[in-house]
Design goal:
Length: 391
């Protein structure tokens, strides 16, 4: 098999991150993903305001094929309907109501192919008081509570990656897999609604549940205190982190690693509740110890004493780590007449099915002829469609 989803065809109507990422995950697992793009520029991540060939586009669109269609034209819709007949999945992240206006909504497509699995990704869903609002990643993060556990409330500045976009893409892929299993049992497809705000809340299931139980919402430092997570720097200024969790042996190992065994029974820190209560004082105390020698020294001491620890890498340093290299997390995708793409491997390994090496992100409309010919269009008709800006 060429992946666990070999034989599944996906039509992606996606821009930016959420829809393209969800479809990319399916492509990596072996599905044939046809990215349906507007002839005038395609997915904005192809160039956007940065111009040209962009890593943002590579990251979310490897392993796909590209077909250009102007879905506002009758001819474009006719071609799309032809593709729907042989498709298994549609993934889209348009604003609510757009697919209905274009005549490519679930109800319309189900009449053509009742087996179609149709996944829509929006900020907050297809109905409700916010349905007409534009929604991007920061909106999903704020509404779902993520920003409150990332930002310093005294200096509110959005930080971190595109969690809402990425998580909604991830949950949408999970939703599609579930719908395909259900279809195998019933013979019928169905519609899936994924939201950025809902995906954030689902990801924050533990702190959200605690808040509902006790009424006290967490801040950005709540979990580090609870989980006993600390960050320090060595004498060389290089950062690292420690996660003590609950086993007492990790606390004892930490004290031995810094050659301070007498701290094991210190009443401020000797139990997990006391360490939580005196989190700031513990952090300040050990920061003084760790400033005495470089990070590499402390990595050796922490490992020798079996303390959960990690250097804090930036994303350039990550790929130099021997364990990451052993895991083969960097892959390279060759492209004709263009620089090789260095990117990240799909993180799952299957014992019986090999995950295929992804093909290069497609050029805009690269596969027009392939699919139009499969629908019965000859070279002359394809040229006419291009001339009319249908493709």
């Amino acid at each position: 098999m060429k992946g666990v989803l070999e034989g599944i065809r996906v039509l992606e109507l996606g821009n930016f991150i959420s829809g393209p990422y969800g479809a990319c995950l399916l492509a990596v697992m072996g599905a044939e993903v046809i990215k349906v793009e507007n002839p005038k520029g395609g997915d904005p991540f192809r160039g956007w305001d940065l111009g040209g060939d962009q890593p943002n586009f590579w990251a979310f669109n490897r392993g796909k094929k590209s077909v250009t269609l102007n879905l506002q034209t009758p001819e474009g819709k006719e071609i799309f309907y032809g593709l729907i007949k042989e498709a298994d999945v549609v993934m889209e992240n348009y604003r609510p109501g757009v697919t209905k206006k274009l005549g490519i909504d679930y109800e319309t497509l189900r009449a053509i192919n009742e087996r179609i699995v149709y996944c829509s990704i929006t900020g907050t869903g297809p109905t409700g008081p916010y349905v007409s609002r534009p929604a991007y990643d920061t909106v999903g993060q704020g509404l779902g509570g993520m920003l409150s556990v990332l930002m310093d409330p005294k200096n509110p500045r959005p930080i971190g990656p595109a969690y809402a976009d990425s998580l909604s893409g991830l949950f949408s892929a999970i939703g599609v897999l579930g719908a395909l299993v259900a279809r195998a049992q019933t013979g019928k497809g169905q519609q899936i609604d994924a939201t950025m705000a809902g995906s954030i809340l689902a990801f924050l299931i533990a702190p959200a549940t605690e808040t509902l139980a006790h009424g006290q919402p967490p801040g950005p430092y709540t979990r580090p205190r609870q989980s006993q997570t600390y960050a320090f720097s060595g004498s060389d200024g290089l950062p690292f982190a420690i996660h003590l969790s609950s086993p007492q042996k990790f606390w004892e190992g930490l004290c031995k690693a810094v050659d301070q065994p007498e701290l094991i029974e210190d009443p401020r820190f000797n139990t997990r509740p006391n360490r939580r209560k005196n989190y700031d004082e513990l952090s300040k105390t050990f920061a003084e110890f760790f400033r005495e020698k470089p990070r590499a020294y402390w990595m050796e001491q922490l490992e020798a004493n079996d303390v959960p620890h990690t250097p804090v890498y930036n994303l350039a340093e990550v790929f130099q780590d021997p364990q990451i290299k052993h895991m083969g997390m960097e892959i390279q995708i060759e492209r004709k007449n263009k620089p090789t793409i260095r990117t990240v491997k799909f993180p799952l390994e299957y014992s019986e099915t090999k995950i295929p090496h992804p093909s290069a992100p497609p050029e805009l409309g690269e596969h027009n002829a392939e699919f139009l010919k499969s629908l019965g269009y000859d070279e002359k008709k394809i040229a006419e469609l291009k001339e009319k800006s249908v493709i």
